[in-house]
Structures are given as C-alpha cells and as structure tokens.
Amino acid sequence: MFPDLTRDDVFRIETRRLWLRWPTAKDRDAILKLAGDPSVSAMLARVPHPLAAPAVDAFLLQARSQNAAGTALTLALAPRAAPGSLVGVISIEGRAGAPPELGYWLGRPYWGSGLMAEAVTALCHAFFAYTGGTELAASARTVNPASRRVLEACGFLPAGSAIMPFPARGADLPVDLYRLDRRRWQGSSSEPAMTEAA
C-alpha cells in the first residue's frame, strides 16, 4: 500500500508544529505513560489498561515491521522543538476488502491544542499523494466528541454508525463511522512538507 518513500525509518512528515516520524524503542516510556492513561486507553480498541511494557515493545516491533513492509504507516507525533519526545501516535492500516483505516491517539496533556487535527491532515495528504488510494475510513467512539471534531475538521464525512469490537475493553462498543475520499481531499489545501532527511 505505501511506497518505498515511507518504508525507511528516516522518513518523516513535517508540519508547522510537529514531526511525524517512525516510532523507536526510545518512545517506550512515553507510550507507557501517555497511552496508559485510562482517559486515553478507554477510547482505544487495542490498548489495554493497565498498559504493560511488553505490550508496548510488541507494538513498536509490529509498527516498524508493517512500516518497512508498506502494509501500514504508523508514526509517532513529536514536537518540532523536541523531535525525540513522543506526544501521540497516528496510523493508517490496510484492511482486506475495505478502505484503509486511520487511527490515532494523543496524550492528555496535549488535548485541545489542535495538534491531532494537524497530524491527521498531514497523514491524509501523505496517503492520497503517495499511495494512489481512493478512500480512507475512520471511526470514533460515540462517547468521544473530541475525536469526531478532529475528523470533521479534517474533511471526513459521517458514514453511519456501527458496533465494533474493542478487545482491550472486553466488549463491542458503538462507534460513529467516517469516510474521506480522494475527490474531497483534492478540494482541500495546505499540503505539509514531506522529507526523507533525518
């Protein structure tokens, strides 16, 4: 799905305030702290609470493996002023017989700052510009209005609702579904800078 450009760990996307870069082992403690926050993990299908270090290690290995294979693109969000400091994670993963799916989380200290909308816009630009993809899917728990606002601000349109498995929550939970297609993306502006330089 993703081209050679993104399959090297020096790949990054730069926005006004962020670097979106491959996650590394050095991000482990930040992920444990930020994704392990119950207010963050409660909204995520695959992040358990409490979050244990072996689960984070497995996530990092899987993310880097999928990035290298081009089957997904998982990137750490880091402030441009401190590119080694992870504040969240964003990804696009391929799905058999369905549009690729956007997912993300942001550490609670950074909520309300507009950083996630900045990151979503940047990764959507990368997806449509570099993969030839025609549509992206996303979902948000119905109890997560902030995530819905991010998707809508980035051009995603509502596409109904569903009950989806949240294995880390031990239940199937209601979500709002969203879609962004290539035509709508082409009508947007402010493409971020892309670079392969480290």
From TrEMBL:
Residues 17-156 form the N-acetyltransferase domain. Pfam families: Acetyltransf_3. It comes from the Bacteria. This is GNAT family N-acetyltransferase. It comes from Methylobacterium oryzae.
